[in-house]
Each structure stands twice: as structure tokens, then as C-alpha cells.
Design brief:
Layout lengths: L1 E2 L9 E13 L12 E12 L8 E4 L11 H11 L5 E5 L4 E9 L15 E5 L8 E5 L4 E12 L1 H10 L3 E2 L5 H11 L4 E6 L8 E2 L8 H7 L14 E4 L6 E4 L5 E7 L7
InterPro entries: C-type_lectin-like (IPR001304), C-type_lectin-like/link_sf (IPR016186), C-type_lectin_CS (IPR018378), Ca-Dep_Lectins_ImmuneDev (IPR050801), CTDL_fold (IPR016187)
Keywords: Disulfide bond
Organism: Plakobranchus ocellatus
Length: 269
């Protein structure tokens, strides 16, 4: 099973935004509340959402990061990002000052997944985790999420990789049979590039998503039996093949459509 539709709706967003500048320490000591000795890397905008606005998902709490007596939502955002740079949301109770950092969202099957409690206060989420026409998908069995976008252009492996990189992502990682089902559905039975190749070292297939090697279990779960087989010693990149709906190695200069993936904080769908 898969969940395609993102439950984060604009109608559920209240017109309240918090923009936080994210800094990178360039030299020496940098005070967490000032920009001295720091360079601005980017800014994040957090949107106030109602619990119904994220259905069917739940906040992905960083339980070790809870703070008390925080004076404002802005300070909560700053503290969350300082302690957890990957954080893309938080819960804040203005009455008690309780601040609970979030990675972002997770599905109902994830460990400890539960709704917003009254004591936790208001939910704020970074609004652009899935943007630029990327859609939010869920691996239902684990509650893990992924941002995916199917592109209509047919390009070679290198060109497709460059496009994904330009959106802050990579060619889709397909490590499980459940993720394979998602990609099959998204591609409507067509062939697609997958972010896996052995171009650096023959026979050692590496995932673009995290730099890890293909495991025997992954190979068994998502590849056609007997693949990858490097026919004529020229097949070094991996595709979802339309005829078999399994992964298969192929020549990297071939042109295919492709799916890009952007990481969801804390998720490995």
C-alpha cells in the first residue's frame, strides 16, 4: 500500500509565519542568538498548522530536545535549529513555554506516532520540504516519507542526475519492495532511471541518496533475478525496466525518463 496525497493543505494553514535565518559558523565562537562570526546559509519559514491540516500524518518529535520556559515561538524555532540542524518543525506552548523540536512528519505506523497533545501547544512546520512540484509519499509499513517528482523528459543518467541535484535531490532510491511499488505506480508502468550505479568501481553499486552500497537483501527485493549482470561489460547504471517492473542495469548513455527524490528529515522510505 502507499499514500500519495499530502495532507498538508493551505486551507488548514493559519496566516502566521515565522522566518528563521540559518547560520553557518565561519570562525571561532558564535553566539546562538546573534549573527556575529557567522554566514547566512538560508532561511526557513515555519507555518502554523492545525492537527487536521497534516492528516493522515503525525509530528515527528525529537523527544530529547524538549525545552521549558522558552519565551516565544521564534526562540523555540531558533533553539530547535541550533540543537538539531535537520529540524523542520516544532511544537510550542506559549502559556508554559514548552518547546518540542520536530524533524518534520511521519506516518501512523512509525514508532511513537501520535497526535498533538494539548500540553504541547501549537504546531509549526517548515513549508517547503516538498516543493517545486514534488509530492509527498508514504511507505505505509514503516511510516517513513519521501518527496518524489516524476519528470517527462528523457535524458541520459548523468543529465538526469544533474537535474535532480539542481532541485536539491537525487535520482530516486529504491531499496525495498514497498518503495518499488510506489515507483511503479508513479511511473504508470514506464521505465525510469534509479539513483544506483557502479561507475566508480565495477560491481560495487552505490546509492546516490546516501552513498551506501547495494546489499544482497536489496538486490533480492528489487532487482530482476540475475540482475545486475553487466552485459558486455558496458552496463553500469540502473533503471526500473518497463517490461519486468523490476530494476535492471543498463548503459548509462541511454535516455529514459526519471524520478527525483528529496529527503524528508528523519525518513528513509
Amino acid at each position: 500500500m502507499l499514500e500519495k496525497k499530502c495532507g498538508i493543505t493551505r486551507s488548514a494553514c493559519r496566516l502566521f509565519f515565522i522566518t528563521v535565518f540559518v547560520y553557518e559558523i565561519s570562525s571561532g565562537y558564535a553566539n546562538r542568538h546573534s549573527s556575529s562570526n557567522t554566514n547566512t546559509v538560508t532561511s526557513l519559514t515555519f507555518v502554523h498548522l492545525t492537527p487536521s491540516g497534516i492528516f493522515p500524518f503525525y509530528p515527528y518529535r525529537l523527544l530529547t530536545g524538549k525545552r521549558e520556559n522558552i519565551p516565544s515561538a521564534l526562540t523555540c524555532a531558533q533553539e530547535s535549529l541550533w540543537e538539531f540542524p535537520a529540524s523542520r518543525g516544532f511544537l510550542f506552548n506559549s502559556a508554559s513555554g514548552l518547546c518540542t523540536p520536530l524533524l518534520w512528519l511521519q506516518g501512523p505506523a512509525a514508532p511513537d506516532a501520535h497526535g498533538v497533545q494539548a500540553s504541547e501547544g501549537t504546531l509549526y512546520l517548515e513549508q517547503d520540504v516538498c516543493n517545486n512540484q514534488f509530492q509527498l509519499f508514504q511507505c505505509v509499513s514503516t511510516g517513513q516519507l519521501a518527496c518524489l517528482r516524476d519528470f517527462s523528459s528523457a535524458l541520459n543518467y548523468r543529465q538526469a542526475t544533474a537535474i535532480c541535484n539542481s532541485f536539491g535531490g537525487y535520482l530516486v532510491a529504491v531499496k525495498t519492495s514497498e518503495k518499488l511499488d510506489i515507483i511503479r505506480s508513479l511511473s504508470n508502468g514506464g521505465s525510469r532511471w534509479v539513483g544506483l550505479d557502479d561507475q566508480r568501481s565495477e560491481g560495487i553499486y552505490v546509492w546516490q541518496s546516501d552513498g551506501t552500497n547495494l546489499t544482497m537483501q536489496q538486490q533480492s527485493d528489487v532487482f530482476l533475478h540475475g540482475e545486475p549482470n553487466n552485459v558486455r561489460n558496458v552496463e553500469h547504471c540502473v533503471q526500473l525496466r518497463n517490461k519486468t517492473q523490476k530494476l535492471n542495469d543498463i548503459r548509462c548513455y541511454k535516455e529514459h525518463r526519471f524520478i527525483c527524490e528529496r529527503s524528508v528529515p528523519g525518513s528513509t522510505c
